[in-house]
Write a structure and sequence with these properties.
This protein is mainly α. Helices cover 71% and strands 2% of the residues. It contains 15 helices and four strands. The strands form two sheets. It has a two-stranded antiparallel sheet. Strands 2-3 form a two-stranded antiparallel ribbon. The radius of gyration is 20 Å and the shape is globular. The model is unreliable at 320-339 (pLDDT under 50).
């Protein structure tokens, strides 16, 4: 039977999807739907940044919301206190969040498995408590209000459509960097750490250095998304960057596909849109997320799209499966080291 989804059909569908994404706020006049589309783009970038650690490198982090919050507060404070422009505050948000990521990663990434998860969880809570209690800087539980709208090259971002396109540009930047990174020797080294850190070290890969570098880059991207979030919402408080937020983003990554760029987009789309459609079940959202995680771990542990990359999804690059015999040999030597 001739395959329906040939490469040509896939490319046409992908082109149609790109056109739809670009012209989405032009076609859709409902501002609520445009706002939902903006949040999907924002969470896609945030999920992709976490996928860099969890999916591509195989390290589970439960503190990603902390870096998201560090970026948001950095940009908001610099904009509020010093009236710096958005591009500069966003750049500072990337640097500060990346520094926090590196400082946490140097001691924490010597751990593995559940120990690393507990450390990142504790870090997320520490950052939340600092945001909550350092009232002179963050206004504590009152939150920061009236955060300035972004002004880029003299253009003030104030409409829903302009925020949508700003977020789309941020997502494209994050995607471009991650794609190029994962298709280079750096990406191959990172994935070799995920598959078997002992074998990677034996082949000359500096495992610890690649772990810290990936953690730092991922944290910087989370800081960039946080800067956008602060100027988009124009109000931030510590409750927006708690453990629940980390779990939500991790659920998007696991649902879409661990180690898959399109999987991050799919997970963010599903877990951003479905809760809006089921608003009556808002209080049971975490229960639903937990159920989704359990079911995915039981029936499809690598997510809906698995490790599928964009070229493989388009059919222009084959996905090679590991032969059973080789997989058994690998398991016999050291096994899969998803730490």
């Amino acid at each position: 039977m001739k395959k329906i989804f040939t490469t040509r059909v896939r490319l046409i569908l992908a082109a149609a999807l790109c056109v739809l994404i670009v012209f989405f706020p032009v076609v859709v006049q409902d501002q609520y739907v445009v706002r939902l589309g903006t949040l999907v783009l924002m969470y896609s970038a945030l999920a992709l940044s976490l996928n860099l650690i969890t999916g591509f490198m195989g390290q589970v982090s439960l503190g990603h919301a902390a870096f998201f919050g560090v970026g948001a507060y950095t940009s908001a404070i610099l904009s509020d206190r010093f009236e710096w422009p958005f591009l500069l505050t966003a750049f500072c948000a990337i640097l500060v969040a990346a520094c926090f990521g590196m400082l946490l990663g140097i001691p924490a990434l010597k751990l593995s498995g559940s120990y690393l998860s507990i450390v990142t969880l504790g870090f997320c809570e520490i950052i939340r408590l600092v945001e909550l209690n350092w009232i002179d800087l963050t206004r504590g539980p009152m939150g920061m209000t009236g955060i300035a709208r972004p002004v880029i090259f003299g253009i003030k971002i104030k409409s829903g459509m302009s925020y949508y396109y700003l977020c789309l540009i941020i997502l494209m930047i994050v995607t471009f960097v991650v794609m190029n990174m994962m298709h280079s020797h750096i990406g191959r080294a990172i994935m070799s750490v995920r598959e078997d850190s002992i074998a990677a070290s034996a082949m000359g890969v500096n495992v610890f250095r690649y772990k810290v570098m990936t953690f730092t880059i991922s944290s910087g991207f989370a800081g960039l998304v946080g800067a956008f979030y602060a100027h988009y919402m124009r109000f931030i408080d510590p409750n927006a960057f708690n453990f629940e937020q980390s779990t939500s983003v991790l659920s998007m990554v696991i649902l879409g596909g661990l180690g898959s760029i399109p999987g991050s987009f799919l997970g963010a789309l599903l877990l951003s849109v479905i809760p809006e459609l089921l608003r009556d079940l808002a209080e049971a959202r975490m229960l639903i997320y937990g159920l989704v995680l359990v079911l995915m771990m039981m029936f499809r542990p690598k997510g809906i799209l698995g490790t599928t990359a964009i070229p493989q999804l388009l059919g222009i690059e084959k996905k090679y499966a590991v032969p059973d015999s080789l997989e058994k040999q690998t398991a016999g030597v050291g096994g899969n080291s998803h730490e």
